[in-house]
Design goal:
Oligomer: homodimer
Number of strands of chain A: 16
Largest sheet of chain A: 12 strands, mixed
Number of helices of chain A: 10
Distance between the termini of chain A: 11 Å
Helix content of chain A: 25-40%
Radius of gyration of chain A: 18 Å
Strand content of chain A: 15-25%
Chain lengths: ~350, ~350
């Protein structure tokens, strides 16, 4: 049975295995430093569809098929799909699972949604509710149109802007079997530092990342160097530097084990992505591709995955509101880790 | 510990009490048949704010304050807030809980979100994860602008159209204490019957309601007349009639105990709402106001609450997609009900 540690953390108390993970991405992501980690790299941004929105649905559907195949289970053996994306009304997820015939729980915590899905999925699995698929996506073209401007406008990007990842990540969580275990989840609070610049999401999200990391280390009594890697969601290069500054002010030891999915997914020098990658599919595909691979190969044994999300919409931004942010942390450990 | 019954249902196996519920609504809802059940009826559609979006945030915040007061707990005693709404990127919820300082899990399953929140909240509570607030809202004016057209256009409504409820409902779920218990949850699958008419959501959602109700009765072995009331979400008058037809075809006994939040909340004859109420706040406020009151007063002892949701967006509709729908059912029973 799960047990509370401190105010924001649950120790799961029973092994919840990440039985399999799959990541499907677009061409640009496939040209980045993590290209080897992804199951499929599509050269077609439309994924065979006629609209960007349908493309993202196809992307998710292909990721779902891949993760079921890798876990060697038929979709019908799943008890729940927890899924989310960035489209208005989270339609990529709903349409992607339309034919799956499995209970669907839609989630939205912006780019931190993979952290939310892994956390809730792990609790469901830990308390006997069965085998769960957690799946999250984003698509550069749907996100640009929705959050910024239609691609055809060719808008300029500021240096702090990030590049929304075209990608989906999915994992299967199971009570028995093999694979690294989710051992602790630290669910985030909303933190609003007053940032209003839609082109500087890293600055809006860094304070939320700090809040959740401080809670995790305080609740668990662990030190940052307990983990081989502490990986935030999509702070990007600016947000990561800001988090380092904030952490120093709070006395949190910020070492070279700290990195960020938005920094890992693209090559800053050669890919013209300014401050790095972003989007709900950024942390999801980096988790399901890169992080799980490092855990499986044993180059890492203990990882704290802490994806971040910015909870505004273009409407609230145009109305002058600041950008609230959140970060959900999940500890994933190979056998030997305390569960 | 929760236990699976059949494919879609969890028997919670431990008492999860609805310790308190609060419902805050707008003027029109306050003039309807359930006016006595709501904690607050605001005469101001703006709830003291300058925009409709900020109004919905204020509505939710006032509902959150009310439910904490009724449960006699400080917000800091909560472990999680599970919340959702219909705005793009679910911003009403995120802004409403911005200052609460409690882990926030954002949910989106359209107008069925209260069913999803009660279900996930009940599992969290049942497995020791603490005290949970489940809260959902909608606002007529944000929804019209977002899903149909700006109010200023004065668009005509078709006879099958429904009226989005301006309202929020919130409940506190707790492992101990008093209050009716959530005993079973039946999580819905996505069902798409091919309906494309945004002005006939009842038709899109009725097949999903049927799917979940059939699963619930099959999984639990219960008959419809086990319940004093079986209350779907916001099918409205057309959708309810359609559900009755579909149920007959499937041999499901459809009696006078079947009703619908969208039919209950407005007076069809005198309130000019066409096919009835809709919106995520419809089922949420009817649950937290009317249904909990009937359970508490003992006029009902066993209720199956089954809110429905339509999972499209205006973009997917404009692209020619049909409307996928979902329904999450939650059994709520006074002491004596099997847990």
């Amino acid at each position: 049975m799960p047990e509370h540690l401190g105010k924001q953390t649950l120790r799961l108390g029973t092994p919840v295995h990440v039985a399999a993970g799959a990541a499907v991405v677009g061409k640009k992501e496939g040209e980045g430093p993590l290209s080897d980690c992804f199951d499929t790299v599509s050269q077609d941004a439309y994924f065979g569809q006629k609209t960007w929105e349908a493309a993202e649905t196809a992307l998710m559907r292909s990721c779902f098929t891949a993760v079921c195949a890798k876990a060697q289970l038929a979709p019908g053996e799943l008890h729940y799909i927890l899924a989310g994306d960035l489209q208005n009304q989270c339609t990529a997820s709903a349409y992607a699972v339309r034919d799956a015939g499995i209970p669907f729980l839609g989630l939205y915590n912006a780019c931190s949604t993979m952290g939310e899905a892994l956390g809730l999925g792990a609790v469901l699995t830990a308390c006997g509710a069965g085998t769960v698929c957690a799946m999250v996506s984003s698509h550069f073209c749907t996100a640009e149109r929705q959050f910024r401007m239609p691609l055809e406008y060719g808008g300029q990007r500021s240096p702090t802007a990030q590049w929304t990842v075209t990608g989906a990540g999915a994992v299967i969580l199971r009570a028995g079997g093999a694979g690294p275990c989710i051992t602790h989840i630290t669910s985030g609070r909303v933190v609003d530092a007053g940032v209003k610049d839609l082109s500087n999401m890293g600055a809006a999200m860094a304070p939320a990342a700090l809040d959740t990391l401080l809670a995790h280390f305080s609740d668990t009594g662990r030190e940052p160097d307990y983990y081989d890697a502490v990986i935030t969601g999509d702070l990007g290069h600016f947000g990561h530097t800001l988090l380092e500054d904030l952490a120093r002010q709070e006395g949190l030891r910020f070492s070279r084990t700290f990195t960020d999915c938005g920094m890992l997914v693209f090559d800053k020098t050669n890919q013209d992505v300014h401050a790095g990658g972003s989007g709900a599919g950024c942390s999801a595909s980096v988790f399901a591709g890169h992080i799980l691979r490092c855990l499986r190969e044993g180059s890492w044994n203990r990882v704290l995955f802490a994806p971040t999300g910015a909870l505004m919409s273009t409407v609230t931004n145009q109305q002058g509101e600041s950008i609230p942010a959140i970060c959900h942390a999940v500890a994933v450990e190979n056998e030997g880790g305390e569960i």
